Amino acid sequence: MPKIRTSRTKPPPEGFEEIEGILDDYARAMRDAENESHEGKRVKESLWPIMRIAHTRSRYIYDLYYKREAISKELYDWLLKQGYADANLIAKWKRQGYEKLCCVRCIQSRDMNYSGSACICRVPKSQVKGNQVVECVHCGCRGCSSAD
């Protein structure tokens, strides 16, 4: 969640005004997802919409800086410092094989059923048996392997 701006914080760098509206839309969607009813959902399932919005917002900032080169390094660093994007996730997206990674938790082997393994969403769809629907328990991802 982005930090609340007060009079003590440094003003945002030049160019923030251009993307502020879109980031406000993401913040509004995040509030709606947080306030959504959790009736009939598993505990982890109620967090999936929040994870998706955080992923989308981080991907938007990543694309602005690395793909489209539409924002400055100063603005990019400020956005990461203010919590608008997940710096650890973006660092993984820059590595080969992790370009579509949904969340950092899916590559941590300590949270998985079998030691040394990865999340089911990291398995390429060609290696999944039959027409089985694959869904990550942690974030609800249906496949983020770069081989797909």
TrEMBL record:
Listed GO CC annotations: spliceosomal complex
Highest taxon of the lineage: Eukaryota
Protein's GO biological process: mRNA splicing, via spliceosome
Nucleotide-binding keyword on record: no
Subcellular location as annotated: Nucleus
Main location: nucleus
Keywords, in A-Z order: Nucleus
PROSITE patterns referenced in this protein's UniProt entry, alphabetically: G10_2
Family the UniProt entry places it in: Belongs to the BUD31 (G10) family.
Name the UniProt record assigns to this protein: G10 protein
Organism for this UniProt entry: Acaromyces ingoldii
